[in-house]
Amino acid sequence: MKKFTGIALLLLTAGLNGFGQTAPKPYGVLPTQGQLNWQETGMYCIIHYGVDTYTNKEWGFGDEDPKIFNPSQFSALQIVAAAKAGGFKGVVVVAKHHDGFCIWPTKTTEHNITKSPYKNGKGDMLKEYREACDKLGMKLGVYCSPWDRNNPNYGTAEYVKTYRAQLKELYTNYGPLFISWHDGANGGDGYYGGKREVRKIDRSTYYGWDTTWAITRKLQPNAVLFGDVGPDVRWVGNEEGHAGETCWATYTPHAPDEGKIPANGYVKDYEGTEGTRNGEYWMPAECDVSLRPGWFYHKAQDEGVKSPYTLLDLYYKSVGRGAALDLGLSPDPRGIINEIDVKSLTEFGNLVKQTFAVNLAKGATLTASNVRGGNKAKFGPQFLVDDNRYSYWATDDKVTTPTLTIDLHSPKTFNVIRLRENIKLGQRIEAVAVDAYVDGKWEQIGEATSIGGNRLIRLTQNITASKLRLRVTASPVAIALSDFGIYKEPVHLTAPKVSRNKKGEVSIITEAPVSAIRYTLDGHEPTSSSPVYTKPFVLNEGGVVKARSFEGKGQQSECAYASFGYAKTDWKVLDATAPNEDWGRAENAFDENTGSLYSTLKKESAQFPQQISVDLGKEQKIKAFGYLPRQDKQADGIVDSYVFYISNDGKTWEKVASGEFSNIKSNPIEQPVALKQEVKARYFKFEAAHVIAGNGITVAELSVY
């Protein structure tokens, strides 16, 4: 009897030490269920379609006539289906942009869809999107701009009541929603019921965000709130579609001014790119970027649609860094996604599906240097390949840098590695490295930081190996790793890069040697019978250059594209506001070098307007101008209000275009300014009436088309 009792005690002790081992203690702040749902969504699209689609603008002024909004083929089903074909799991509908026009029959303003010809004023596009999402099994979210350039009460407490009433309508009539999206652009010039003036607000306090967010929590409790300061999902700080190489899901937002409360449009947005290690809030990043150069449809940008492999690269730099990818879709004036866009989306979706169809690590034997409490049944490495994001391999509290050996049993060829943590226990791991056993020794093939909800390591070359090793190289606490996978991205050629110098010479290069580069100048995509590029060629009059790499039997890259204005060989500065010589001469405004600047920035205050006038060398036909802002991610001197003039004698000037460069700070691409009609001139003047920040202007490049 005593012997039996002793054995029982031993078994009980083993059970307490093994199968009774408790889970690791959570580390830091943790995600809510809504944030977990958002993390699992991974990719969604934001849809910009409204009056701006018909005015060729990015930001409407607020004085647009609703009668221009009359699509001939609007189909929410086609738009949502295009997103689904790309592998996206939801759509965020821009229900109201900064122009104030609402695409649902709101009771809060007359500036809405009922005043348009669409369905004789009986239309409700939000309802159609809701029905399309339900039919296709997609999630729905809404964007309602806090800024309203049409509303006469904007800037007063009365408007905030209107804005909250609009949110209540959207939350009540079109749910369930997975996200409520709040833009940071607010305050500035607008129509405002005919006042046509600038209205400034205290961005820190005006919207009373805590009260506004409480409406979401009450009416859409499962929706996450997106904004510069979350509170659930933060803006990544750029509109280029990528998070930082290190990207923490935790974040502490800061206001630009000491002592102020951060808010949407009032935050040090650059901090959002990487987040904050051990930040105050669980607030992962969303990477928003448009499929086209702009957010709204512009026919001139049909050639600028991002290619499938460009989208795949953004996927690795967003979803692959623990963030989400929010891709902008822009229905054309017909009210559907253009065929060019649909093709790119579909091919991208197929690429992602093909790449991640098979985890080559399944069936492998996984051996860990440590398992929590020795309890493999509960915390063993086998959970890394079971398709469950929340089952996990864990280590003892004192073991923070364990290793894992993966025996694949036979050689496998791969080029992508996927890791995930069980983020229900926080973001724990700070760095890892992966080795392959090649030619009788271990060689490091990849490394990463900040694993979190998802981490993809895209290797620069294919790796073939039968044995791998994962090393956790930094973690403040025991690990809780939930996923390990290796995958094979399809083979492809890299598209060539097209550039032109000031002499008008076009060069086409590739990152690696290929059998041939073929190009066209007639707008058609290159084929195997197109001219072969052998050396730089002159393109003085401008035009479109398209190029492709070719290799072997029929293998070809995606099509590269570049649009050029007139060559700038003979251009000269006629006159210019005195430059800051430390920054750059006036001639830098047309040197075909996007990294150089013409700058008039100075420490003391400056007067506006400021200008630069250029002699083209001879009279030219002019259909459009282009302004490229500085490309170094700084805002000082970026022009957002402009005037273009022309002259034939360099003395008498005629204004041919004026307006604003909307959203130029967040999306600093070349800003095209199309003229209402073609003109002839030898001289042109670019005048800056206002800049985003700083005392002076900066110009990376000016172009004439």
TrEMBL record:
User: F5/8 type C domain spans which residues?
Assistant: 353-489, 559-705
A Pfam family annotated for this chain is F5_F8_type_C
Q: Which GO terms describe its molecular function?
A: alpha-L-fucosidase activity
Q: Which InterPro entries match?
A: FA58C, Galactose-bd-like_sf, GH, GH29D-like_dom, Glyco_hydro_29, Glyco_hydro_29_N
Gene Ontology annotations of biological process type: fucose metabolic process; glycoside catabolic process
Note whether Methyltransferase occurs among the keywords: no
SUPFAM superfamilies, sorted = (Trans)glycosidases, Galactose-binding domain-like
Write down what this protein is called: alpha-L-fucosidase
